[in-house]
Amino acid sequence: xxxxxxxxxxxxxxxxxxxxxxxxxxxxxxxxxxxxxxxxxxxxxxxxxxxxxxxxxxxxxxxxxxxxxxxxxxxxxxxxxxxxxxxxxxxxxxxxxxxxxxxxxxxxxxxxxxxxxxxxxxxxxxxxxxxxxxxxxxxxxxxxxxxxxxxxxxxxxxxxxxxxxxxxxxxxxxxxxxxxxxxxxxxxxxxxxxxxxxxxxxxxxxxxxxxxxxxxxxxxxxxxxxxxxxxxxxxxxxxxxxxxxxxxxxxxxxxxxxxxx
Length: 261
Fold this sequence. Notes:
Layout: H1 3-23, H2 26-45, H3 61-78, H4 83-91, H5 93-99, H6 104-132, H7 140-169, H8 172-188, H9 201-207, H10 211-222, H11 229-260
Helix pairs in contact: 1-6, 2-3, 2-6, 3-6, 3-7, 3-10, 6-7, 6-11, 7-8, 7-10, 7-11, 10-11
């Protein structure tokens, strides 16, 4: 099957997912409520941490917090991406896809693209709320684009992971349990909410290997007045590499699901 056909199938399947989203736009609002509350609530509750000696995140906690909230939203949204596969398996739609000449790679990539589109829309909304609350980002449009890129790469990593779990387990309860098991530790073992310079040394060491931290560092770094582009691109590169690995694992899980039928 040609790359052109695979691309066409990807576009069709992504459009199918987006049509479902636009038929129920409340889904977007529901996904945004918690991040916006965290942004506004944490932004007020912890705004004085910038005065703690050793805090290196600048003089405005809302500016420091916003990239972390964006990545938290991307993480929690993509960790549930596999639910669409389970719904298709339960309803028999997946079997009909597999009985058709639909490109298998397109079935994986389409779910990742769909989640990426949602992440971009939600990130723009969160950035708008942060701006209205008083946050100003010195990185300009380039910094905002890089922040979006980091969020999309993080979404790709965990969408692929969620898809793999869904295909291997075929069970909502297992997917939800595994998603919650990894999401909160990844979030708190990072600098999303607090500068890791103020955290215990072991947290700083764990954060170095945390893909969620890679996205936070890249996004936040790009919004600085003078970004350290070496650090930003290094973290984006790690995320991109992990996204490729996770996509490969999802493809292997897809093959395993087909053989189990």
